[in-house]
């Protein structure tokens, strides 16, 4: 393998995706959700769209988990599908599977993840894994507080944000970055990793755009 880049890979990724990350955080749907202006139906829909995305992501990651590069970051304790299923049972009811559909944004995200898995693009999968799980371990913890305090979602509907099985979120974040920094990637792979991470944020914006169309007023979306 080629020597690791001089600058920590986690820092390179954070810097090159800062603008795209900010665009997602400032999206109309998430902005309104965090402000407490939406309702529990929006909370449930958000969880449903995430379930489609994580189902595809975790299948793709497991399919290529034998690759040592992916194995470095793919801690099974971070997996979220089971947690989302418990949340959906609380937010919607035991019949939740028959009540949800992926929006165009989630469908595009699922297709992209399946495509990466099909061609064995492990670098691309690492990028998508990084964007989703590190986000859950950081900003996701703040969102959990919002859902609890402003939407009165109880613990039974917040499993997605609970990483106690993996450990303290702050420690998990630091360990994730440390493992990411241990990857020995060449310049071409680092460039593709950064590009794929920005693509992941763009796909997340697509999911948020759909949710805004369903749950935000026209003036909120402008």
Automatic annotation (TrEMBL):
<feature type="binding site">
    <location>
        <position position="130"/>
    </location>
    <ligand>
        <name>heme b</name>
    </ligand>
</feature>
<keyword id="KW-0349">Heme</keyword>
<comment type="similarity">
    <text>Belongs to the heme oxygenase family.</text>
</comment>
<feature type="binding site" description="axial binding residue">
    <location>
        <position position="21"/>
    </location>
    <ligand>
        <name>heme b</name>
    </ligand>
</feature>
<keyword id="KW-0408">Iron</keyword>
<dbReference type="GO" id="GO:0006788">
    <property type="term" value="P:heme oxidation"/>
</dbReference>
<dbReference type="InterPro" id="IPR018207">
    <property type="entry name" value="Haem_oxygenase_CS"/>
</dbReference>
<dbReference type="InterPro" id="IPR016053">
    <property type="entry name" value="Haem_Oase-like"/>
</dbReference>
<dbReference type="GO" id="GO:0004392">
    <property type="term" value="F:heme oxygenase (decyclizing) activity"/>
</dbReference>
<feature type="binding site">
    <location>
        <position position="177"/>
    </location>
    <ligand>
        <name>heme b</name>
    </ligand>
</feature>
<dbReference type="GO" id="GO:0020037">
    <property type="term" value="F:heme binding"/>
</dbReference>
<dbReference type="InterPro" id="IPR002051">
    <property type="entry name" value="Haem_Oase"/>
</dbReference>
<dbReference type="GO" id="GO:0046872">
    <property type="term" value="F:metal ion binding"/>
</dbReference>
<dbReference type="GO" id="GO:0006979">
    <property type="term" value="P:response to oxidative stress"/>
</dbReference>
<keyword id="KW-0479">Metal-binding</keyword>
<dbReference type="InterPro" id="IPR016084">
    <property type="entry name" value="Haem_Oase-like_multi-hlx"/>
</dbReference>
<keyword id="KW-0560">Oxidoreductase</keyword>
<dbReference type="GO" id="GO:0042167">
    <property type="term" value="P:heme catabolic process"/>
</dbReference>
<protein>
    <recommendedName>
        <fullName>heme oxygenase (biliverdin-producing)</fullName>
        <ecNumber>1.14.14.18</ecNumber>
    </recommendedName>
</protein>
<dbReference type="Pfam" id="PF01126">
    <property type="entry name" value="Heme_oxygenase"/>
</dbReference>
<feature type="binding site">
    <location>
        <position position="14"/>
    </location>
    <ligand>
        <name>heme b</name>
    </ligand>
</feature>
């Amino acid at each position: 393998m080629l020597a690791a880049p001089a600058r920590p890979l986690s820092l390179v990724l954070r810097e090159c995706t800062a603008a795209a990350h900010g665009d997602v955080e400032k999206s109309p749907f998430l902005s309104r959700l965090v402000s407490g202006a939406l309702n529990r139906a929006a909370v449930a829909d958000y969880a449903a769209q995430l379930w489609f995305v994580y189902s595809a992501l975790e299948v793709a990651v497991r399919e290529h988990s034998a690759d040592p590069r992916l194995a470095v970051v793919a801690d099974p304790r971070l997996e979220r599908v089971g947690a989302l299923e418990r949340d959906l049972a609380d937010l919607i009811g035991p019949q939740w599977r028959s009540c949800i559909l992926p929006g165009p944004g989630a469908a595009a995200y699922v297709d992209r993840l399946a495509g990466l898995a099909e061609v064995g693009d492990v670098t691309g999968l690492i990028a998508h894994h990084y964007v989703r799980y590190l986000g859950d371990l950081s900003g996701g913890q703040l969102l959990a507080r919002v859902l609890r305090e402003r939407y009165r979602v109880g613990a039974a509907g917040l499993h997605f944000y609970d990483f106690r099985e993996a450990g303290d979120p702050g420690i998990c974040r630091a360990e994730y970055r440390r493992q990411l920094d241990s990857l020995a990637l060449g310049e071409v792979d680092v460039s593709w990793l950064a590009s794929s991470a920005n693509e992941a944020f763009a796909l997340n914006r697509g999911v948020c755009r759909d949710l805004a169309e369903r749950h935000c007023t026209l003036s909120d979306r402008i």
